[in-house]
Every structure is written in C-alpha cells, then in structure tokens.
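Illustration 12: AraC family transcriptional regulator.
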Amino acid sequence: MAKKKILHIPAFRMNDSGSKGIKINRLDPEIDISGEHSIASPHRDDHYMLVVIEQGKLNGNIDFEEIGLEGPFLMMVFPGQVHLLTPQTPLYGWIIDVDRAMIDQEMREDLETRCKYLLPLHQSPSDAAFQHILKLLNVMQDLYNQPLDTRHKAIAALLISVLHIINGLALNITETASRKKNRPQQIKQQFLALLYQHYSEWKKPSEYAAKLTVSTAHLNDTLKQLTGRSTMSIIQEHCVREAERLLQFTDLSTKEISYQLGYPNPSHFIAIFKSQKGITPMQYRSSVN
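Figure caption equivalent — predicted structure in token form:
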C-alpha cells in the first residue's frame, strides 16, 4: 500500500477553552494530563503557549532551533511555530495555552518583536520577577480549579500581569535606551504584525506601507535602519521560513507549496528560495530528510 501523502503540518486548536480562552496545565509527575495532544512530535498550534519550568530538563526544537534547557526558565511558543518538546527529566511548572483574542494587539506586537526569538529567559529561583510570576500562576491555578462562572475575568487579568512581567524582562535585555517606543520601532512592530497575518496574500512592500499610512520608501528606510534588511527581503524571508516548515514536515510538492504561499509562478518561488537559502527547495528537502 502506498504511503499516505502528508499535506499539512499537524496543527492544533485549544481542545478545551478552559477559562474562556486560557487553559492551565500544572506540570507535576503526579498529575496526569493525558488527553492533551503530544508535544513530542512536530506540530504547531493556533494559540500561544507559555512554558514556565521551575525544575526539570527539556529538549526540543522550535522552528529549526535546537533547545536544551534546565529549569528554572520560561519561554513562549508563538502561533504557527513548528515545535516539539521532549522532557528529559520530570518537569515541575506550568504550560499555559492562550487564545490570540485574550491578548490585545499592542501586547501581541511587543511579544512578537521582543520575545519570539529571545526566549527562553533563564532565571535564578531567587529573581524577584520569576517569583512574582510563580505567585501569579499559583493564584491562577487556584481560580482555575474553582467552579465559578466569573473566574475567567480574574484569570485573564492575572495572565496579562504575567505577560507584562515577561515583556519587561525582554525589554531589559533588548533595549538599553529609553523604554518609550519611538516611531520607527512602532512602524517595525506594526509591519511585522501585518506580515504574520498577510504574507501569503501581500507580496509588495507598497501593500504594507498603504496599511501603515506611510510611503513605501519610508517603510523601507525604517526597516533597513532597524534590521539591516529591506522590506522585500523581510517579506521573502518570512515566506521562505514557512516553505522550510512545509518542506520538512509535509509531502507537498514545490508547486503546491508555491501556490499555498501565494506565488502563482513556481519558478519565481524557487528563485526566491534559492536566493535566500543558496539551494533549491528540493535540495533543501533532501538535506533535512
């Protein structure tokens, strides 16, 4: 019998909304969380996943980046990132699943910009910020286990407090200047937020510039100043990263991937991929499989 063709990377929704968009799993060898989808095989989620580990070792891969971590640490996996996580020892801590709608746009932009490739944040057990997060998570856990219809409002407020602390930790690492966002940083964050939503539809820098109400030249100059890359280069890098995921974790053909990413001309897509990676999509697939 022919092997069934893999057309999609496994993607999971929150199978139980928990407290209206927030699901809390306490990690403890004595607590059974069976029934959850496995995090030990490559997949992606449509929601954020906050991992806070007090004790234990964890290996894995997030968007092709190998990780080997020992608690205490915290990290966030973002919607769409292909990941697998494998405990090496018993883990003590939390996994918090959070629906996108629970986090306002400004916070999402901050987390995407500062934390997506920064976390994990390793902590000392005595660090004040880490201790504050643990206290908030314990209160959230207590509320989560109570059969109260109004509990979700309190849990949501506590969650936002946790995210503000994480954002502050990342800010201390990534910014040594003023904490106040300037206009170029705002443009960059807003552009990235649009890119994550529309990369398969919008391929022209002018489309993003129009939505941001700036000129195409100004958007390009701003991104070059902050990242060293042009608007077009960032758009193409994002599309190629998604192509890498599909090449490694599905059996879709180059043509099918090209169409899925919004490139109606596969030859054009192949040329973009080769310019970014130095090899063709099929050569890339052969190198990783």
